[in-house]
User: Fold this.
Amino acid sequence: MLLESLRNQVLHANQEIARRGLAPHTFGNASGIDRSGAKPLVVIKPSGVDYAALTPADLVVTDLDGNIVEGSLRPSSDLDTHTLLYREFPQIGGIVHTHSEFATSWAQAGRAIPCLGTTHADYFHGPVPVTAPLTADEVAQAYVRNTGAVIARLFKQRNFDPVAVPAVLVAGHAPFTWGKDTAQAVEHADVLEYVARLAFRSVLLGASDAGIPAYVGEHHYLRKHGPRATYGQL
Assistant:
C-alpha cells in the first residue's frame, strides 16, 4: 500500500515539473523513497518517457543499489545519482532533477547562487552551492554515480545540512533539489528556479555576490524553519 501511494506521488511530481516548465522535453526526473521496510525502495521515472504519457505502472522500482525490483522499462539515466543521494542523505524522501532555465544557467557558469534577498533566505540557508566539475576519471569511471558523489562530497566538506540547503547546482550540468517527500522536492525546484531568475536579474542590475547581510538572511530563514518559527499557522 505504501509503495502504491509512493508511485502516485512520484507520478504527480514528474507531471508537475513538466507542467511548471522546469523540465522541458524529457530533461529531468523525480523520485521518491520508501524507507519503511527492511530494504528501502526507490520509485523513479523511466528513461526518456514523455511526462504526459506516464502512468503509475511505467514507474520503475529499484533498491538502493539500483537493482530493478519492479517495472519493465529502463529507469532514469540519473538513477545512480538519486540512489547515492538517498544513501548519503538519510533525512530526505524525494529528489527532483531539472534543467530549468535560470538555475541551469548558474550551474553552467559554475557559480553558486548568492543569497541576494529575503525570498531566497526564506527557503535556502545561505547561497545555493555549486559543485566542483567532475574530473575526466570520474566521468570515465562512473559519470552518473560520481555526479552524486561530488554533491555529497561538497556537503561534507562544507558541513552543509541537506535539510537547510535542499538544492545544489552541478557544475556544467543542472540543479538537483530534494525534500522530506517528492512534493517538497518539487516545491524546492520551483522556488530555486524563481530565486535563480531573481538573482540573475539582480546581478545584471549591479548586485554584489556578498548578498544581503547575514543577520537578515538568518532571521528570515529561522522565522520560517527555526525552533521558534513564526511563519504560517500552528
Summary: Residues 182-204 form the longest helix (23 residues). Helices lie at 2-19, 79-88, 101-108, 118-121, 136-157, 182-204, 214-225. The longest strand covers residues 28-34.
